[in-house]
Write a structure and sequence with these properties.
The protein has 224 residues and is an alpha/beta fold. It has 6 helices and 10 strands, in the order βαββαβαβαβαβαβββ. Helix 4 links the parallel strand 5 (99-101) and strand 6.
Length: 224
């Protein structure tokens, strides 16, 4: 039997990452060496999603996978981000990892950006959810019984009442027609805490809701 291709998975901790990981595991042709997540150093939280590092680490433990945390500054420039990611990815490339998988769905510019930077170091991108219909993807997330909570919303798209809610049929039915049901345009971000790929549920409770940068509402998730 041929050796499986070694890959790492870009892990935001949200529902799309969880579904992408589920798909990669289902396909069964990859050896998933590690998850990789960017963490904002000053806050010790997942960048953009605002999830505490301890919950991220419990996620990885529940998934039974190693976790690579890449620390970036809160006002990290693109150059700094790319430099830090390049250093980490080269380490994995030298261990035989050939690709990194992403949960991206349709943002062409983002995919081109990722593939261009990976090509510079002799790696490639894998996009298991690419081009799939958003409604079918959210249907699959729900039918597979993934549980996720909305941790951040962009107030340019959604109001404060959407943050801290469970990602479920009620949440989806309340979304304006202009908002992508997967939040692919950055309308909202989530934290997946249970589902078929998790060995146990990551217990938490919702805490304070804060507005950052006069734009993004974050709901603090507290570990239990």
């Amino acid at each position: 039997m041929p050796n499986k291709e070694k890959i790492i998975v870009s892990w935001s901790a949200g529902k799309d990452s969880a579904l992408a990981l589920h798909e990669l595991m289902r396909i069964g042709i990859y050896e998933i060496v590690s998850l990789i997540t960017t963490v904002t150093e000053e806050y010790e939280r997942i960048s953009m999603h605002g999830v505490r590092r301890i919950l991220l680490e419990r996620q990885a433990d529940s998934l039974g996978l190693p976790l690579e945390q890449v620390y970036i500054a809160k006002n990290c420039s693109n150059d700094e981000y790319e430099s830090k990611m390049r250093t980490v990815l080269l380490k994995y490339r030298d261990k035989g990892v050939s690709a990194i998988a992403f949960g991206d769905i349709f943002l062409e510019d983002l995919r081109r950006y990722r593939e261009k930077n990976l090509a510079l170091i002799g790696m490639k991108g894998i996009f298991p959810l690419w081009g799939k219909n958003a409604r079918k993807l959210v249907g699959k997330i729900l039918s597979l019984a993934f549980d996720a909570v909305v941790t951040c919303v962009d107030s340019q798209f959604l109001d404060k009442t959407f943050v801290g809610r469970k990602f479920d049929k009620q949440f989806l039915s309340a979304l304006p027609a202009t908002v992508d049901p997967c939040g692919e345009n950055g309308e909202f971000h989530s934290f997946a805490y249970n589902g078929p790929i998790f060995r146990y549920c990551i217990e938490h409770r919702t805490g304070e809701i804060v507005l950052r940068d006069n734009r993004f509402y974050f709901c603090d998730l507290m570990p239990v």
